[in-house]
Amino acid sequence: MSNPLISTASLSKDFVVRQRGRKSVVSAVRDVSLEIATGETLGVVGESGSGKSTLGRCILGLETPTSGTVTFDGTTLTGLGARELQGHQRDMQIIFQDPYSSLNPRRTALQQVMEPLEVLTDRADMRARALAALDRVGISAAQAERLPRSFSGGQRQRIAIARAIVVRPRFIVCDEPVSALDMSIQAQVTELLQELQRDLGLTYLFISHDLSVVREIATRTAVMYRGQLVEVGPTAALFAEPKHAYTQRLLDAVLVPEPAVARERLAHFGASVRSPLDIPADAQLVEVTPGHWVREA
């Protein structure tokens, strides 16, 4: 990919865990190299604990990588000081999973959306810009002075989206942005994110465990297992013909309404669905078809 907006090179993040007086190291992200083109949506899927959210936080600088680099539009961000990094924070925003805990319960919707303007911009016309962002996501000026408890879950997430777009970013990490919402509201918020992407030229890293949402919204999909990328490719091709055993497990674990199909899948995988995969430490990603990469087993 030539001139990607976002790229990582051998990105890793370790955490020190203390249990019963003993220290151990957990590798949440291991040697992840990826690229995201301007205007595309890269979906990241995998089971809980696979490193999806940690990867997003490392890209944004919310976590400091143990090793590797993050590059934004040609500038290497890894290693920059806080003041230097702040200059890029307006271009890179995040939408969190829980729309209630991500908002300050004591600040109105308008105050929440004005906050990043106070920190990251010249503060000119902050109120008008915040109201415009709220209106863009479906929150009226009459509702703007309400506290988060006055809104539904879907409306709270719309406020969080307005807060992310108000500084006019180029890249947004969507960290499970619809998983806490009802199914009907999920579809509305997903449609809103797609509409904003078209209108504002946004680039997304879309983290989710919901494969149906990723299949709808993502241009390409990356599959993570135990901190590693095991498969990356065009979404349609990856869903139609998954190459890696873990990707196959993920897709076959999706609930289906037909009992006969469900029984067939269970018979096919059996106990192996729960057994861990043995991936050699030195296994490399190999391009099996143009743009479709799979880690060797």
Radius of gyration: 20 Å
* Helix and strand composition category: alpha/beta
Largest sheet descriptor: 8 strands, mixed
Q: What's the pLDDT, averaged over the residues?
A: 89
Seen as an oligomer or otherwise, the chain set is single chain
Describe the overall structure.
The structure is a single chain. By secondary structure, the protein is of the alpha/beta class. The protein contains ten helices and twelve strands. Strand 7, helix 6 and strand 8 form a beta-alpha-beta unit. Helix 3 packs across helix 4, helix 3 packs parallel to helix 5 and helix 4 packs across helix 5. The protein starts with 5 loop residues before the first strand and ends with a strand.
Short description, anyone?
The chain has 297 residues and is α/β, with parallel strands linked by helices. It has ten helices and twelve strands.
Compile the SSE list and pairings.
Blueprint: E1 6-19, E2 22-36, E3 41-45, H1 52-60, E4 67-72, E5 75-76, H2 82-89, E6 92-95, H3 109-120, H4 126-136, H5 153-165, E7 171-175, H6 183-200, E8 203-207, H7 211-217, E9 220-225, E10 228-234, H8 235-240, H9 245-252, H10 259-269, E11 285-289, E12 292-295
Parallel strand pairs: 3-8, 3-9, 6-7, 7-8
Antiparallel strand pairs: 1-2, 1-4, 4-5, 9-10, 10-12, 11-12
Helix pairs in contact: 3-4, 3-5, 4-5, 5-6
Looking at this protein, list some descriptive labels.
single chain, four-stranded antiparallel sheet, globular, 297 residues, alpha/beta, 10 helices
